[in-house]
Amino acid sequence: MKKVPVRVDGRELTLSNLDKVLYPEIGFTKAEVIDYYSRVAPVLLPHLAGRPLTVKRYPNGVTGQFFFEKNAPDHTPGWIRKVNLPAPGSSKNRESIDFAVIDALPTLVYYANLAALELHVPQWRVDADGTALPPDTLVFDLDPGAPATIVECCRVALMLREALKDEGLTARPKTSGNKGMQLYADWDCREEPSAYAKRLAQVLEKEHPKEIVSVMAKKARPGKVFIDWSQNNPAKTTVAPYSLRARERPTVSTPLSWKEVEDCEHPDDLVFTAPDVLARVEEHGDLFGRA
Hints:
By secondary structure, the chain is of the alpha+beta class. The chain has helices at 30-48, 105-113, 150-166, 193-207, 258-263, 274-284; strands at residues 3-8, 11-16, 21-23, 28-29, 54-57, 67-69, 82-86, 96-100, 116-121, 137-144, 171-175, 181-186, 212-213, 225-228, 238-239. 40% of the residues are buried.
């Protein structure tokens, strides 16, 4: 195993297996994963800062075995920020978990080197002392039931945008990097977010029953878009903006402009890979940073 010592913003890291192919379909290597995350860091890090991290690791690439990692192992470098938080319902019967927090480039590079392709975070942050704060983000996950695609998700996103606007909330869209998309809005804690999101989803389902479903039963989804409101549960996470996804190609959960949502006519219109996203960021900056 070839190891390469590097210095990242004053931290010493050791990178390994840089030529290992993690996306076999196009030969995308670990070195390219690390390069992507390093270059997208200026727009990615603000969306990770203060949020307890869950990673999805693919040590042998996207066609190999993967695992979720919430608890930061004992061998995690001491300079990586960790916060200890309650873990109700832990699959390993832990009362609490030491979550890592990615708030600086060295931590991001460290996890990229572990083949942590996907970065997932909750809709809340911790304060400087590591105490959980109230949720600051509302999220709707739009999941198309075949034969519906992201094209139908875009239509529903536009309906949801107007419904949120009527409630005084400004929505921001992004692709999931998979087959669907998500809408986020800054949240003011006017009520419990899951209950609020569920009620809004049910209203839209009632108004557009042929296009929208708000229940989780898969048998109800064919040809419709499921508005998943449950991602607002504080125990759940959503893929972060600019995170890679473990698909055949290195697709990214990509922030969109509303014009792109309005103009979408084919699923391929909204598929973006790591190189695409770096070019978009160079041209537009952080689309997700604009309310």
